[in-house]
What we know:
This protein is 55% helix and 10% strand. The protein has helices spanning 3-20, 23-29, 33-39, 47-68, 74-84, 87-96, 107-111, 118-136, 138-149, 161-170, 212-226, and strands spanning 177-185, 192-199, 202-209.
Amino acid sequence: MPCNEKIRQLRAVFDDAVNSLEPTLRTQAFTHISYSNEQGDTGSSNERLEFLGDAVISLAVGQYLYEHHPQVLEGDLTRMRASLVSGASLAALARTVRLGRHLILGRGEELTGGRKRPRILAGALEALVGAYFIQHGWEASHRLVEDLLLDTELKVVPVDPKTLLQEIVQRRPGSKLEYVVLDVTGPDHMPEYTVACVIDGRHVSTGKGAAKKEAEEDAARNWLAGNGYSDSVPYNKNHLADDEIGR
C-alpha cells in the first residue's frame, strides 16, 4: 500500500473513532492534566482513561500476535508487543493521525510545545482507546487497535531495547544490568533525563529522554546499535557471545 494511502486510511480510522464518542467522553480523552490542574478539577483529566487504554491496547496486541504468529516463541512475542505498544510507537502514530489538534492543554503546556510532546501524544492515544472501550466494548476496541497499530505484513520481530538487553545480560550468570540517572535538566514541566546504562559496574552507554524510561530505552538502544543489533531485524539469540557483554 502506498505510504500516502496508508496515512489516509489511518487518519480516517482515527477520525471515525473520535467522532463516534459522545461529547463528554471525547473531551475527557483529550484533556491533559495540565488543563485540569488549572481548572482545579484533576478528575476531569484523561489519566484514568489512559490507564484503561494502555491495558486494552496491550491485550489487543497480545491476542493478535498470539493468533497471527503461531510459530513465534513467547520471548519474541513479548518483544514484538513491547515494541508495538511503546510510547515511541504510540507517539509516532499520534503524530501521523494529527491527534495533537484535539488536545486540551494548560497554558504552560500550550506555550512550551506540549501539543507535540511524545509523552502527551502517546497518553492521549491510550486515553482515546480507553474511552472507545467504555463506549463500544471489547470487540470494537480490538478492531480499532488492529486497524491503527498492527501491520498484517509484519515479518520481523521488533526489538524492545531494554527487554533485549536484559536478556543478553542474563545469559551470563551473575551479570547485572542497571540504569543510573546522571542528570536532569530543564524546567519541571519539560525535563530532560540523561541516564547511564551500567553492566557489571561499567558505564557502557548513555541515553537521553523526556522521561526516565525514555532515557533508559535510548541508552539500551545505543548499546545495542553499537554492538551490531537493529530494531528492524529478527532477534538472533546467538548473536553475542557471553564474554562480549559489557565491552
